[in-house]
Design brief:
Radius of gyration: 22 Å
Strand content: 15-25%
Helix content: 40-55%
Strand order of the largest sheet: 3-2-1-4-5
Oligomer: single chain
Number of domains: 3
Number of strands: 5
Largest sheet: 5 strands, antiparallel
Shape: elongated
CATH superfamily of the largest domain: 5' to 3' exonuclease, C-terminal subdomain
CATH architecture of the largest domain: Orthogonal Bundle
Number of helices: 9
CATH topology of the largest domain: DNA polymerase, domain 1
Order of helices and strands: EEEHEEHHHHHHHH
Structural class: alpha+beta
Length: 197
């Protein structure tokens, strides 16, 4: 896997560029968020890359930041989103704006992105919400979470912890519901659920 390239830009015509790395010219496609910040031709640049190997081609994508590459890789895992659409999404929205739209369930802002219709926007919200939670630390994102969502999340985490301790899911759910009060965090819920047993 080619994870990073540093070389001289030989040619650039959005979204493609040719990067000379010690005499080898790599064709790289980059989102506009990266492309707009590239130096001029004959200047050196360093890009984080993602290589896709298909039966008929080897495609290399370049990103200015690890966060962009991480979001690109997460988008590729969404049903119906290929590399071309993922690149288009990154070109039309920065990482933080995209994450905010997904976390807030804002399908309207996602449909403003080229190539994203209503169904794709809904699929992105559903499938990317959990993925963004997984990668939010690496992407440097601060999740936008309502109080109700925090409480529901604490209850879910408490149930998962009780199941991990050996309780059956239905029993764990019942234990948490019995003690669930307002503004209790996960740790408090688990402690009270175990004490009530």
């Amino acid at each position: 896997m080619i994870g990073r390239l540093r070389g001289i830009i030989l040619d650039k015509q959005a979204p493609d560029l040719v990067l000379d790395v010690q005499g080898v010219g790599y064709e790289v496609a980059a989102p506009m968020s990266t492309f707009c910040h590239l130096p001029g031709v004959n200047e050196e640049v360093s890009l984080f890359t993602h290589l896709i190997v298909r039966e008929d081609a080897q495609l290399l994508y370049g990103f200015a930041t690890v966060r962009e590459r991480l979001l690109f890789r997460s988008l590729l895992k969404v049903n119906g989103v290929g590399a071309k659409l993922a690149l288009t999404i990154l070109s039309g929205s920065d990482v933080d704006d995209f994450a905010r739209s997904v976390q807030e369930g804002d399908a309207a802002s996602l449909t403003r992105l080229p190539g994203v219709g209503k169904k794709t926007a809904e699929r992105l919200i559903i499938e990317m919400r959990d993925r963004l939670k997984e990668v939010s630390g690496a992407m440097g994102l601060k999740p936008v979470v309502s109080e109700a969502a925090k409480l529901a999340g604490a209850k879910d985490e408490a149930i998962e912890a009780l199941v991990a301790l050996g309780y059956k899911p239905a029993e764990a759910d019942k234990m948490v519901r019995v003690v669930a009060g307002e503004n209790l965090n996960t740790e408090e819920l688990i402690r009270q659920a175990l004490q009530s047993k």
